[in-house]
Amino acid sequence: MNGSRAIFFDRDDTLIKNVPYLGDPSRVVLMPRVRENLPRLSAAGFALFLVSNQSGVGRGFITKAQVDAVNDEMFRQLGGNFFTGDYMCYAAPGQPDAAGERKPAPGLLFKARDEHGIDLTASVFVGDRLSDVQCGLNAGCRSVLLLHDTEDGVADRERARGLAHFVAEDFAAATEWILRTLTATV
Ligand SMILES: [Mg+2]
């Protein structure tokens, strides 16, 4: 199958430190090693996408505009918006769209595939939780698990470790594995 190779990123505890239901851009803090490595992946020819569950919107705790403001602050701290697109699931569990689009469901990756001509079998999902690893696998991608802070408990963490194609100590290790394993074509 022809198509662009993509890297899909979880946001919270992958690109920025997780703050539950974050709506305040002043609390955005990049995770270690992200700022210097994300541009390398972009420069290697991968299309980068943000894929995030933001159920705080569906729960009525924060607005979509606040999510956008947080994302904009993240882009500013990264030194630019390196992402081809962002795919947010605002639904809380049980709400419409949650079934198909809330990670670990693969719906948002299928949307990115259809809208941007992505070859999912040549693409990777990077995240810190079992639901990230499963989302990537459910879409036919490879999955990379980041080992640092996570909201997952011990059992989910162990399941995620067993399922992931690669378990990375940090974002730099994930970057090296991706660059070594996948040859980017655009
Ligand atoms: Mg996360």
Compute the average pLDDT: 95
Give every kind of bound small molecule, once each. magnesium ion
Number of helices: 8
Which percent range describes the beta-strand content? Answer: 15-25%
Secondary structure class reads: alpha/beta
CATH homologous superfamily caption: HAD superfamily/HAD-like
Largest sheet: 6 strands, parallel
Determine and state the CATH class: Alpha Beta
Any overview of this molecule?
- The protein has 186 residues and is an alpha/beta fold.
- The chain has one domain: Rossmann fold (3-Layer(aba) Sandwich).
- The chain is 39% helix and 15% strand.
- It has eight helices and six strands.
- The chain is globular, with a radius of gyration of 15 Å.
- It starts with 5 loop residues before the first strand and ends in a 5-residue tail after the last helix.
- 42% of the residues are buried.
- The model has no long low-confidence stretch (mean pLDDT 95).
- Magnesium ion (MG) binds at residues 10, 12-14, 127-129.
